[in-house]
Amino acid sequence: MLSEKKLGESSFLSSGSSKCMSDNTPTAFMIHDEGEQTIPIIDFSLLISGTPDQRSKVVRDIGHACREWGCFLVINHGVSQKLMEDMITVSQSFFNITEEEKREYVGEDVFSPITCGHSLHGTTTEVNLWRDYLRAFVHPDFYFPNKPPGLRDIAQEYSKRAREVAIELFKGISESLGLEENYIHKQMELDEGLHIMNVNHYPPCPQPLCAMGLPPHSDHGFLSLLIQNDISGLDILHKGKWVPVCTRVKL
User: Fold this and answer.
1) What is the dihedral of CA 205, 207, 208, 209, to 10 degrees?
2) What is the rounded average pLDDT for all residues in the chain?
3) What is the band of 224 on the pLDDT scale with cuts at 50, 70, 90?
4) pTM of the entire structure?
5) What is the rounded distance in angstroms from the CA atom of residue 216 to the CA atom of residue 202?
């Protein structure tokens, strides 16, 4: 397995063909919104500890965000900034271990509890998706690589805290639909439901105009919680236009 990171550090692409993805170039996908649209912001603290009136308003805001956008930014969620930064940093270090060490976690198929790989399509002169990834099942049973040191422990704590946030959001979504707060939890059997953690790494590409991290897509899970570093690039499709997710919002 040759990761995008390793490939980018090699000479395979540095002097390669300038042929890109023709109609599949990144700019072909991106029609950005030039207006003032911003992704809805939900104050999690008011959902779990606000007054009844504050909670009711947040529930309505969640419902509106789900109907109109399909996503929202969550602030004051209680997951410490340090834990999020540690999760990002130690996850990054996974992609710095040797290719031989990574092969321990390649996995046999999508049902393997731990798998890592890359999204390179075509040949090295027709680069499409430029991403290395690590995917692991973290609930109901927890799986994660033991390398590098500290990764597994930090990932376990982060996944636990993220799950706590998700459960409260499910309550708000249920109430926004006029249902009792635990309706989704019960119907989806969340206590035994599968929780998957994906870690995406987008290393520098020697031919950046010929590559993109991921194409437009919809996540297949019921709810996705995302954290990102300070590098922009995450966009949300809204009414036919791409709206960038601000990386400077205090979460």
Assistant:
1) -160
2) 84
3) very high
4) 0.83
5) 16
**What would the two tokens of residue 246 be?**
């601000």
% of the chain surpassing 90 pLDDT: 60
Give tens-digit pLDDT for 137-149. 999 999 999 999 9
Place of tokens 């926004």: 176
Residue with tokens 């991403």: 131
Among 156, 110, 116, 151, which Cα is nearest to 134's? 116
| Cβ neighbours, 10 Å, residue 174 | 20
C-alpha to C-alpha distance for 152 and 221, rounded to whole angstroms: 23
Q: Which of 209, 214, 206, 211 is nearest to 234 (CA)?
A: 214
pLDDT at 206: 80
Convert 90-121 to b/e letters by CB count within 10 Å (16 or more is b).
bbeebbebeeeebeebeeeeeeeeebbbbbbe
Mean local confidence (pLDDT), 123-140: 77
User: Structure tokens of 197?
Assistant: 């953690």
111: left (phi over 0), alpha (psi -120 to 50) or beta: alpha
